Amino acid sequence: ALDYASSIIILSTDADDSESIKSMVLLAGKGDWPGRAPTLTSEIAHERNYELAPIASRNRLQIVSSAKVISKVIVQAIRNPGLSKIYNELFSHAGNSIYVQRVPQCTDVAIEDIAYRISDAVPVGITWEKRQDGNVRHAVALNPEPDYEVDADEKLVLIARGLPVHYTALESGYRSSLAQDGGGRTRVPRRVLLIGWTDMIYDILLELDAHSLQGSEISILCGRSPEDALRRIEEHQKAPFANLAVAFIQGDAADAEVYAGMDLGSYQSLVVLADDWGDDKGDVDTRSLRILLRLSDLRKYHQARAHTVVELVDEANRDLIAGLGVDDTVISPNVVSAQLAQIARQDVLGPIYRELLSAGGVEISLRPAGDYVALNTDCHYNDLIYATQQKLEIALGLLLARNNGEVLLNPPRNKAWRLSEDDQVIVLAQQLY
Description:
Layout: E1 7-10, H1 18-29, E2 39-44, H2 52-56, E3 62-65, H3 66-79, H4 83-91, E4 97-101, H5 111-117, E5 121-132, E6 135-142, E7 155-160, E8 191-195, H6 201-211, E9 216-222, H7 226-236, E10 244-250, E11 269-272, H8 284-298, E12 307-312, E13 328-331, H9 332-345, H10 349-357, E14 362-368, E15 378-379, H11 381-389, E16 394-400, H12 402-405, E17 406-409, E18 417-418, E19 424-430
Parallel strand pairs: 1-2, 2-3, 8-9, 8-11, 9-10, 11-12, 12-13
Antiparallel strand pairs: 4-7, 5-6, 5-7, 14-19, 15-18, 16-17, 16-19
Helix pairs in contact: 3-6
């Protein structure tokens, strides 16, 4: 059925990605497509094979490294409490997702004006095609300067509920009296406790190192001995971590004795990983639940409660951890499968997701509403657009404190809110520390 497919997805099905790489070589070398070649997308499970994959595919496939994607989403959630809710919506089949569309009316119009004129989507960037090594590649620029004017050969990158989006001609020069100065810094935890061991532990450390301040401390609590854990990390390491000091604690994280000499209150973030290491693998999510129950009991005696992130492998288990102090939940198979499916639909989404999740670039952040607009005053989405543009950012929506953190991506344009100090603005911004 290859000749009749509009897209082909290669899943990683073995321990060393060998089947995926062989499939890439075969598909990249196929030159007798009867019509337009399908979109080719492949999953790579192990980061060590990520650099080999483009060579095997002759740069003709979109490559998704599951370890890289999951580790980046987990670290983004560590730095931005509540961010997993935004990613859950972007990666799901319901609600808002990322789309690319050419909007002819936007040619020669500045990004800052387009933001007000498209009423059912949020423009977050532009994309265009360029030829490289004989192949047509997608170039992407997220969060362009507000005064950037869109060229005729460029498409808009949009957060929307679907296509097409609708453009309405309006006068330029919107102004808001609610805009506030100040703010703009992202939370950077100085002490993080990682609980569990997975194949992507090094990817998480590498990503944390890229986002952390110098002198940050990462403790890893797992069943491996400190010597074995250090050796396994050093096997991957090409250079020492620039910002991290890593310590190892051996033990079962579900046992109270492990925490006897540990000051849980000194950690700003706790991360419970989907640990499948050991002889008795059992149910990975059940193990995580036991650890969360233990942490919930121990933290009753601590005044300061660390921000907690948990990785699950089954969406059905999300309800089991309700009430256990979890702030962010990452369902790792959902994240990877959603990216594969969305990139297969629009291959331009590959470089867009890479840019969104890369350290040192443009990222989705959560910032206090008071950094942008006056609080306890009627505020519309256009006021948020204006306030974020003054900081060279893009307003994506709101995370309201009510209803256990209600996410409003691409919110209605005719609705008003009275924001409090506990509400947050979802922005697309350059990383600042």
